[in-house]
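RETRY 2/3 - previous attempt timed out on the joint model. Re-submitting the same 504-residue input unchanged.
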Amino acid sequence: MRAAQRNGEDVAGLTATRLTALLTAFRPGDDMLGVSELSRRTGVPKSSVHRLVGHLVAQGLLDRENGAVRLGLKLFEIGQLATQQRGLVDAARPYLADLREATRNTVHLAVLEGTEVVYLDIVRGPDAPNLPSRIGGRFPAHATAVGKAILAFSPDSVLEKVIATGLPRIGPRTITAPGLLRRSLAKVRADGLAHDREESRVGVVCVASPLLDGDGRPRAGISISGWSNRVRPGRVAPAVRTTALTLSRTLS
Amino acid sequence: MRAAQRNGEDVAGLTATRLTALLTAFRPGDDMLGVSELSRRTGVPKSSVHRLVGHLVAQGLLDRENGAVRLGLKLFEIGQLATQQRGLVDAARPYLADLREATRNTVHLAVLEGTEVVYLDIVRGPDAPNLPSRIGGRFPAHATAVGKAILAFSPDSVLEKVIATGLPRIGPRTITAPGLLRRSLAKVRADGLAHDREESRVGVVCVASPLLDGDGRPRAGISISGWSNRVRPGRVAPAVRTTALTLSRTLS
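RETRY 2/3 succeeded.
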């Protein structure tokens, strides 16, 4: 009896792991994926993929069409709740629209997850370059202004984890030396503003500021991104900082 | 051996069902939920909830804080892919912004799921009432212009399913008689436009048009919502219809 129960728990754990692997196997640009491709991406045997996909389709988490599957709309509904419960995106939306209107450049709202930022919202401006960032997408935190704005106000352990990733070069001027990153973040902490000139991407400049809760902990960051030869960081910085301060107060 | 395998499959199916039940147990306005509340909402025994929540936290689908859990950011990332793979939201965004700017009212982008619409995007206008709709939220299709715009171009079986739900009254003038709904949809089919005057909500008027694919099947709908005593449907209708036609062409 105990052995059977143990076995049941093992199966449940394995199933949970495999279901998550299937849901996270999809990438931007994918549409329908077949059983073989899902098996290849997840390492789950084809017969198990086939069976688990059947369960996920029955639950509405995947949609089936001509034998292949894609992510179901129910995942979009659940995913929206995941951020709406944090109250951040809804509260930030009108402020981001104002910032975009005032600067005519692209506004990002992002949170830190591990060593990367995840974009919660993006409002594209008419004067900005066509950046490849997407809502729900990720970017290495050390290589972008909005990531540095959050990192500067995060516990030391967070920065140490980022440094342990090796600080890969992303743009032509990405900070790849731990000492330089620490000094850069000390300045961000003093100013409440982070800058990035071609650290994330050639030809692009960003200015960011953190959204802090009542205890000074960073909940998120906002940034403006534009062409490095058109945007003067000194001119947009006060707008970014003001919006971040207002929004921080509104949220807490 | 076969019995053990059968048992394993049963456990996997049950686990898939329960994991989905846990992920869909969260509602707008919830933040952290405890094991007891999750058990109450899903009907899954507490000990199983405890174990499955552990798996979901380990996989990043739920976040744990002080013994309670909330939906994890990974679900937001997966959920974004679910719609981005459909290409619809990204393609529609600038058009919705134009429509909002031209009409100063609130623009919705929605798809039909079963008998309800799900809002994929909402751009709120300065002149519009503060509607309770939210991105990822649902609304009965028969009671709103955007739902009727999609229904009018859907197969008969879809409409029959909607009628079988009993056409509940949502706003003061919701169409609750099957015959009236059929006649209303015939007009929508002829015009490419759907209207809703206080069918969804007191004091609110909506004008909608469907996004059709190359074969004339409805992929989604767009609508304008505003105060019924301020918006003249005849004035915004051409803008809604033009945007829907342009976007339909862009998508196919």
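Chain B is about 50% helix and 20% strand. Closing ticket.
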